[in-house]
Structure formats: C-alpha cells, structure tokens
# Entry
Amino acid sequence: MESMQQQQHKKHIKHQQTRPPSFMMSMSVRARAVMNHFRQFPVLLRIRSNRFTSYKQFIIYLRQIDRHARLLINRSKFRFVGTGVVTAALGGRAFSFWSSSEPEEKMAEDNVTSPEDVAVKEADELYHNHEIHKLYKYLGEFKDSENPLLLWRLARASRDVAQHSHTDPETSKRLTYEALEYSKRALELDDANFACHKWYAICISDVGDYEGSKKKILNAFKIQEHFKKAIELNPKDATSYHLLGLWCFTFADLPWYQKKAAAVIFTTPPESSFEEALSYFNQAEEVEPNFYSKNLLMLGKTYIKLNNLKMALLYLTKARDYPAKTEEDLKVREETELLLPKLTTKKSN
# Structure
C-alpha cells in the first residue's frame, strides 16, 4: 500500500505533466523580459478572441515570436511599445491627417512588426482621434529614436501642443523649438520622405514668430524649397499644396515696410501673387476635396483679395459649415463668422 507521501508525489508529477508549460522555463531571456512587461501592463496585451482557442496555442505562438523579442531592446534596456508585439499588425487601419496619402506598410508574414512600426500606427490612431496631449506624451518616449517616421510625428505633436490654447507661452516656445529639432533630425535621416520636408518647413516658419520678421524673411526661400520638395516627392498630399499656397498668400499680402526689409536682405526678395496662392489652394482641393477647414477659409480670403465676392462667399460658407473636430476648426469657424457679414454687406452694396 502506498504511503500518503508517495500518493502526493504522484499527484504532483501528474500535475506537472498536464499543466501548461511555464513561461520562464520555455522562453529565452528576451522573451522573459517581454512577458515580465506584459505582467506590468496587461492592458497592452490585446488578443483577438478568435485567434487562440487554448492556452497551449498561445504559448506556441509566443515561442514563435521569440526571435522578434530582440526588437524590444532600445538603448540597452527593454522597452515595450504600442499595442504589443503579439498584435502589432492585427489592429484596424491607422489614419493620419498629414500623411493620408502615404501607402500602408505590408504586414509581416507572421503578423509581427518592429516596435517602431507599432508606435507609428499607435501614434496615427491617437492623431486621428485628436488626442494631441496623449500623442505628445506617447511619442516623447521615442525622442532619442533614429526613426524619421517617429521623429516627424513627434515634431507635429510638439507643435500641436505648442499651439493649443491652454498651453502657456513659455511652454509653447519651448515646444516650438523642440519641434524644429525633431523635424531637422527626421530630415537628416530621410530626405526622400515628403513629410520630413513638409514638417521641417512648417517648424522653421513657426520659430520665425519668435525671432522676428527679418529671420522669417531670411528663411522664406528655404521654407518654399521644402514645400516644393514635399510636393515633388508626394503630389497626392493635399496639405503640401495648401502650405505652399499659404506661403504665396503671405508674401502677396506682405505690408510695404516688410517688403522694403526683404529688398534690403535679398537682391531678389521673395514675392508672389494672390493668383498663385489661389492655384495652390485649388490644387489642394483637387487632390482631396474638403480635406481641411483652413484651406476653405484661405480660398475665401484669396477670392476676397481678387474681388471675386461670389466665390469668396461660397468658400467662406463651406468653411463655416465644416464639421469642427479640432480647436483649429473652431478658430476657422469664428473667423468666417466675422468675415461673412462684412462680405454680405459689401456684396449688397
């Protein structure tokens, strides 16, 4: 007859044989670090309910992605990002307003992408949902990254927070210069990416607001050059046309004293016309109709300058009625509500 001790030992052996294998015994050091991070942030581990029918399948899958765990090493320490290595490529399509024309990256064969690919998708989702403060905080984890796709998005996020109405002036200035630094690094890493050129030009212009008209005029040709390069690299990006139109409008509408200052700085100062500005705003609408409330506003303001009140009224009305999803949309609506009564009065006279 077996002793109580022998019976307990047999039960223990049977339990060992039937229970799921231990994470810590079945996976490499890298994978252990991943799973430790899962334990700290379980909410980040998102698995489609119909993907795994058993715990065993889940373990097998984790072993398959063990070789990808090394991708989580960032500057000699493990870092887990985005929605998780397991489900990096399982989410819905990511959106980004400024890069709506960019082709989607192909998924890896085993549905696993690098952490930085995951971060780009997560950032685009936050941007699409207009969660600018969350986005800035999230991308701040990648400020030392060498990935231009993350850096130009970080530049954009920094700028968005800098221009938010609740951001104090000192913080706004700091973030504006941060955005310039991130955009510059992104461009240095990839000068064949249209968004890197576009955001570098935007950030140079923003910094000019702190450094005076002379500095802004000095940078004018550089800004124009990068907007044109962005269009050359991606002629399907509506915002690049809009921004070049804005550049043209600004110099067409430059006060006389600033034109004189520009003539002192340059032999041939930057100049443009409202007709040229109109052509770029129209091209933006051709590429992507009604993509941006401010483009509709600028079309209306440009038609006012060209004394075409009928078309001005049309586009200002469109801008006013544009669904307000961002703080900028609300500012556009406020401006149109100031302009429309004056325009209506002027037209009736």
About this structure: Residues 13-112 have pLDDT under 50 and may be disordered.
